[in-house]
Amino acid sequence: MELMQNVAKMQNSQMRMETSQNSTAQMQEHQVQAIQKAQVQQEQQTEQNQVQKIESQKEMSQLVKELNEAISPFRTSLKFGFDNTSEDFYVSVIESKTNRIVSRFPAEEAVSFLPKIQEVNGLLFDQKG
Fold it and tell me: What is the dihedral of CA 69, 71, 77, 83, to 10 degrees?
């Protein structure tokens, strides 16, 4: 009888430990999720701060020139152009041989991914050597 009581106490003790461990694991998981959420929000805020409004044809021409220079090492048949027929500027990805527009997006979006294109370009093609 005493043996059964000891076994029952041990089982209760084990269940309390498992419950405690589960609680600790859940708390840690919530903390990790909160940290990840904060990091994502910080990255989004940084990207929003980097977005600049393109307000002149001169700025748009400069942006398109930089985009075309950034993709030139890739030897692609794509080029960038812009559409100023509307109030807002749009950057277009154009297939060079046919002049067909492949994609079109707001200029501010292009401003944000230009550094990414340049980074990939730097990683793939050592521009120092």
Answer: -70
Residues 66, 67, 73, 76, Cα dihedral to 10°: -150
Task: Give pLDDT tens digits for 14-55.
Answer: 888 777 777 777 777 767 676 777 677 666 665 554 556 777
- What whole-number distance in Å separates Cα of residue 124 and Cα of residue 117? 11
Domain enclosing residue 40, as ranges: 1-50
52-61: long-range pairs with CB below 8 Å, 24+: 52/108, 52/111, 53/108, 54/89, 54/107, 54/108, 54/111, 57/84, 60/84, 60/89, 60/107
pTM of the model: 0.50
3 lies in the same domain as 41:
yes
Give the C-alpha separation, 49 to 45, whole Å: 6
CB-based contacts of 118, cutoff 8 Å, min separation 6: 70
